[in-house]
Amino acid sequence: MDQPEPILDDRYYQIIQLGDFYVSVIKDKKNTTKVIRELTERMPNKEFNYLKRVKSTNNKGDSLQVLLCPKDDVASINEVTLEAIIGEDSSILQYLGKPFLVKVPVTQPLTKKQHQEASLNWPCTFHEDKQITNLLSGKYFNDIEIEKIKKHMLKAVELAQISQRKQQEPIGAVIVDPTNDIIISASHDLRRGDHPLQHAVMICIDLVARSQGGGMWKLSDNDLVYNQDINTAISTENKTGPYLCTGYDLYVTQEPCSMCAMALVHSRINRVFYGSSHKEGALGSFYKIHTQKGLNHHYEVYKNTLSIECNKLYDQT
Amino acid sequence: MEDHPKWMHRAMDLAREAFKNKEVPVGCILVYKDQELAQGRNEVNETKNATRHAEIVAIEKVLKWCDENNKNSDEIFENITLYVTVEPCIMCAAALRQMKIPLVVYGCANDRFGGCKSILPVASDELPTLGPKLVCISGLLAEEAVNILKEFYKGENLNAPEDKRKIKPN
């Protein structure tokens, strides 16, 4: 099985945008410290704090450009001079050349790739997020993890095939507690029956509720299962017991729709692995509900999990 | 159409019922050809299922009613108006499209989960396989809808970590 592919927020994939900034040449590099100190005080450019203040424009490092401010900040000034930008009372005016415009990155680089791209125009600081680097490396999961993921997704595929035989949408879902690898619930789709909202994921969530003594749909079907020992199993170590799908992982053969993706937000799922993408899917294709700004819960999503087997279900081979 | 306020008052009754049952106070009713066909209110805590929002509960009651009365549910839902005290969340907006409910009348905006305009416009985005777009009318009894939510969350810091909250959000 190939590595499941993480689906991160758009800002980790976006192309670095460039914008106009005024810069100036530092006439003699021995004044660099003074220049930086005063500019940092007078125009901190907080929003762009990832941009280094100074750029070396030759190999020897003795030809330096210093960042002044975004073009938009002085848009109201008719004649853009050093005095107008920095202030007439500044003591560093004598050390600097005439201001001119250059293109600099106006989006903060968050990945190594973006950092390389951004640095072509202007040097940027970059604090590497190891988790993000690992996720984007294409080898995030180790062999043991891959085997576990494969095992659970195979179960979901099996349920999708059962669903297909019952003339239902070929979608299967499994919810697992990753701390002990125990299956909490497993389901397949039933939307073509009397209830159009009984998608595999919605059923799987309700079966988790049943494992906790709740639940709404008393579906009796041997293919729809929930772990009946979960309350007692957890109550010894955790006094409060399980709460919704907190800490659980979902394996589902097809990318969830908006309803199911948001149901997983409400249910506090931990991670979602899916096989095939869907053009209106809400976890990467049409929306990214799992990283949606403004929502009070976010979760990790991985696509292309056992994709060959899943794509067969949807004629996407 | 001039009956909108009347039905919204009924939805508000259900929000109050949710409140009394310590559920997030959102209520709704489904109206078919000028008849109140089903009611719903939040049932998240009692079912331990975070998807038991008022709209989903009411939809299920109509499905059951259709089943018991031998009605074609497609025809019923296509002629239903939903009255709900708060803007449907993303999940419910998607559910309403799947049921092909054409018209939604709601009270206040849902700044935390709204699926009509507040967080994501699921109600009106180009999602043909999900179902037809929803027509939404907003602002009816909005103040009352907000007040009952505020009352419910009173003394509750919505920015507090969830495990420290008195009331679990849904």
From TrEMBL, chain A:
GO terms for molecular function: tRNA-specific adenosine-34 deaminase activity. InterPro entries: CMP_dCMP_dom, Cytidine_deaminase-like. CDD domains: nucleoside_deaminase (cd01285). It comes from the Eukaryota. It holds the Pfam family dCMP_cyt_deam_1. One of its GO terms (cellular component) is cytoplasm. One of its GO terms (biological process) is tRNA processing. Gene3D superfamilies: Cytidine Deaminase, domain 2. The keyword RNA-binding does not apply. Residues 147-302 form the CMP/dCMP-type deaminase domain. Keywords: tRNA processing. Belongs to the cytidine and deoxycytidylate deaminase family. ADAT3 subfamily. This is CMP/dCMP-type deaminase domain-containing protein. The lineage of its organism: Eukaryota, Metazoa, Spiralia, Lophotrochozoa, Mollusca.
Automatic annotation (TrEMBL), chain B:
Its cofactor is Zn(2+). Residues 2-127 form the CMP/dCMP-type deaminase domain. The keyword Plastid does not apply. Keywords: Hydrolase, Metal-binding, tRNA processing, Zinc. Pfam families: dCMP_cyt_deam_1 (PF00383). GO terms for biological process: tRNA wobble adenosine to inosine editing. GO terms for molecular function: tRNA-specific adenosine-34 deaminase activity; zinc ion binding. It catalyses: adenosine(34) in tRNA + H2O + H(+) = inosine(34) in tRNA + NH4(+). Its EC number is 3.5.4.33. PROSITE patterns: CYT_DCMP_DEAMINASES_1, CYT_DCMP_DEAMINASES_2. It comes from the Eukaryota. One of its GO terms (cellular component) is cytoplasm. Probably participates in deamination of adenosine-34 to inosine in many tRNAs. Belongs to the cytidine and deoxycytidylate deaminase family. ADAT2 subfamily. This is tRNA-specific adenosine deaminase 2. It comes from Patella caerulea (Rayed Mediterranean limpet).
